[in-house]
Design brief:
By secondary structure, the protein is mainly α. Helices cover 52% and strands 4% of the residues. It has 8 helices and 4 strands; from the N terminus they run ααββββαααααα. The protein has a 4-stranded antiparallel sheet. Helix 1 crosses helix 4 and helix 5 packs across helix 7. The two termini are 40 Å apart. The C terminus is likely disordered. Bound molecules: zinc ion. Zinc ion binds next to loops.
Amino acid sequence: MDVFEAIRESGITARQAAERCGIKINRNGMAVCPFHKDKNPSMKIDSRYYCFGCGEKGDAIDFVARFYGLGKKEAAVQIASDFGIIFEEKRGRKPPPERKRRLSPEQRFERAEKKCFRVLSDYLCCLREWKEKYAPDTAEEEWNPLFCEALEKKDYIEYLLDILLYAPLSERVELVAGYGEEALKIERRLEQLTAGTEGGIGKDNGENGESGESGTGRADITAGSMV
Ligand SMILES: [Zn+2]
């Protein structure tokens, strides 16, 4: 129901709207017309209004629109808000409910798996880069934490990616379910790194994801655990 229908259905009269505007209406249902220089009440107001002086007429919405110099829609919205009338914005057709909620478990897993794979690949790229870039030049030099991380994690991430690529479904499901949260953490961290908060890695890392997917990461990844 749009705002016009809602007001029509609510039965708000021109009289109620006018009173809300501060117009005094006498016992005969007459008021001093606010739309022309009126000395005596020449406006009849009930469900609609009509001025015998200047000929203005209309319903509640017309009154408020004219009184405040608003468009009809704005006036209607104001009345709705003044009188607590609930309505729905009509902006074309309602968008269909998000498709991802209707995905089958298999599709959800596929998405989660894809995402997990993408994140781990990005991460592996970083690890490889860090291993080169932050390798200490001298034996005495203190190791860069990113270099340490590369040493520590690179093989493991390669192993996980191998599973995603080659292992049978059951193992992949297990991995995605078990590693999904961790993958999300990695993704966030890589995003922060590429955003430059810690600096130090190339811009190409972590930017090759499909756009529009990042916001749904949690749902996609954790969907794996529902398989
Ligand atoms: Zn008038």
